[in-house]
Write the C-alpha cells for this entry.
Amino acid sequence: MADKLAILGGPKAMTVPWPDNGTIGPDEIAAATRTVASGQISDCGRGETVAAMEDAFAARFAARHALSFSSGTASIHGALFAAGVRPGTEVLTANQTWASAITAIFHAGGTPVFCDVARDSFHIDPAELQRKCGPDTRAVIVTHLWGIPADMDPILKAARLLNLKVIEDCSHAHGAEYKGTPVGTLGDIGCFSLQGSKAIVAGEGGILVTNSRRLYQRAMIPGHHDMRLSVELVSPDLKPFAECGGYWKYRISPVGAAIATVQLGRMDELNGNRQGNFDILHRRLRKTAALLTWPKLNRGSRRGWYGTPALYEDLHGRVSRDLFAAACAAEGLYVGRAYSNWYRTPVFQDLKLMSQLWTVEHPNGVKYTPLGEGALPNDESVRQRLLVFPIPPLAAPEFMTQVAGTVEKVAANMASLSRFGAEHKSKGVPGCAY
C-alpha cells in the first residue's frame, strides 16, 4: 500500500511541509523599521537609503551604474527607452518569459517581435535575431529564464552585427554567471526584479545595471522625479527632460530599498542553500534520466534561482507531462509548468482588444502582427515538456529528499498511472486532460 500512488488511493509521499521561507529575517526587519522610523518613506531624489542600495548593487555586479525602480517591469521599460525604443520601432523577444517583459515593450512605444527559442532551450535562438531583425529593430531582450544563463556569446555576436542593444532580463537570475561574468553585465543593460517571490527581494522593486553613463541617464527619464533628473541629466540633449520626464512614477520605496540592500548581502548565502537543495534532488534523480533532462550550464557558468526546470519526456509515450504532474500533486508535491503561451493569448491575438491598451500600427508602417499556432515550434516543444521543481532558500535536506522520493515513486508506477489516465480519458471525465 505504501507504494501505491496517491492518485490511485495510496498514501501521500510528501509528509514534510514546505520549510519556513527564511527570505526575510531580522536584519531585513530592522532595516525596514529604521527606515520607517526615520520618516524616509518616499524619495523624489537619490537619498541616503536609495543611494546605498544602488551603490551596493553596482559594486556587487561590477557595473558602473545602478538605477532603482518600483518593479522589474519598470526597469525594463527604462532600459528600452534608454536603448532608443520609441513609437515605430521593434524589439525582439522570446515568448518564454513573464508577460510584463513583453508588455514593457508596448509601454516604451515599441512593437514586440516574437522569436523562437533554441532547440531544447529556454532562451532566444541567436539565429532568430538575423531572421527577424528589420530596419526599425532597436533591441533584443534576453531572458535568463528559471535562472539558467542564456548562451550569450552567439547572441552578443549577432546583436553586434545587427547593431542591436542587448537588454538582459535577469529577474530569475540574481547571482547567476555566464562563463565567470555576472549576468546583467554582458549586454548593454541588465534588469532585475526584486518582487517578493524572487531570489532576493524588496517586497516590490527592481533595479537596472549598466556600464554606460548615457544609458543610465536615459533610463531614468520615463519614471523618475524631476528632482533627480535635474541633478543627473548632464548630457546636453537630455537636459530638456530634466523639468518633466515621462512621470510613470517608477521610483522605489526607501523601505523596499533598505530591505533589498540587506538581501543583496545575503544573496550568496541564500543561493548556496538553494544549490545545496538542488544537489540533493539532482543526485537522487539520476535514475530518472529517461524521464527528466536537466539544463546544462556552459563551463565556468553558475545558475540563479527561481525554482529549477527540467524537460519531461516519457519515451514510451504512456504518461503525459500533465498526468505526471497531477500524480506528483496528489502526493503533495506541486510541480510548476510553463508560463502561459503569451503570443496565443487574446490580448496578443485580437487587435481590437490590443488597441485598447497600446498602439497597434504606427505611421512609419511598423505594426504588430499576430502569429498563428505553431509559429514557434521549439518554444512549443519546450513548453509541452517543462516541469519546474521547488527549491527552498533555506537548507532543507529532509524536504528535498522527500521531493526526490516522490518523483521516484511516481516514476516507478508509470504503468499503473498510464492505465489510470487511459481510463479517465475514455470515460470523458470533465476537465481531464490526461
